[in-house]
Amino acid sequence: MKFLLCIFFLSALTIGWLDSCNQNTTSVTDPVSYYPTSKPFVRWWWFATEIKQKDIKHQLDWVKEMNFGGVEICWLYPLYRYQKMYAEKYNRHYPIDTSAQKWLSPEWSDMVAYTKSYADSIGLSCDFTFGSAWIIAATYMDKAHSTQIYGDTGFQAGAHLFMVIS
């Protein structure tokens, strides 16, 4: 009988110890903690329209509330490049927004600086594309702000890259 009591007592201790090892310290209602670098970014299109600080703040606050990690700003300047395409392809006609800050002007740069500063202050990352839309050069940009190639320029257009993966 003592033997059975001893086995029962040791079993109870072992089960209690194992249960204490498996206790989860977080509950289902606790907010999930993420690494900031694991949160996705959103692409934030800035069309050639007037940019206002209150709009920037409102949109960045929304991005933060939705638990994104940051924004990548992609601007479209000048918008008239796209107005012609919309008129020809879709018969849509948009007026030119004369309130928009000029591309790379001090007023435009102030809005970009404010955006970066405010994003940093609320814990969001903020990246920028290199130029307007997907291209990194345009006829209205001077050489200092356009696409530049550094290093080896001996590459050939249309060359093919073959890789053997083993």
Summarize the structure.
By secondary structure, this protein is an alpha/beta fold. It is 36% helix and 11% strand. The protein has a three-stranded parallel β-sheet, with helices on one face.
Detailed description of the structure:
- With 166 residues, this protein is α/β, with parallel strands linked by helices.
- The protein has helices at 2-21, 53-65, 80-90, 106-121, and strands spanning 41-47, 70-76, 125-128.
- It has a domain at 36-141.
- Helices cover 36% and strands 11% of the residues.
- Helix 2 (53-65) runs parallel beside helix 4 (106-121).
What structural keywords apply?
3-stranded parallel beta sheet; 4 helices; 3 strands; 36% helix
Strand content: 5-15%
Helical content, roughly? 25-40%
Low-confidence stretches: none
Could you give the order of the helices and strands? HEHEHHE
What's the main sheet like? 3 strands, parallel
Shape: elongated
**Distance from first to last alpha carbon:** 67 Å
- Radius of gyration, whole Å: 29 Å
Structural class: alpha/beta
Mean pLDDT: 75
Main-sheet strand order equals 1-2-3
The total count of strands amounts to: 3
Count, helices: 4
Topology diagram in text:
Blueprint: H1 2-21, E1 41-47, H2 53-65, E2 70-76, H3 80-90, H4 106-121, E3 125-128
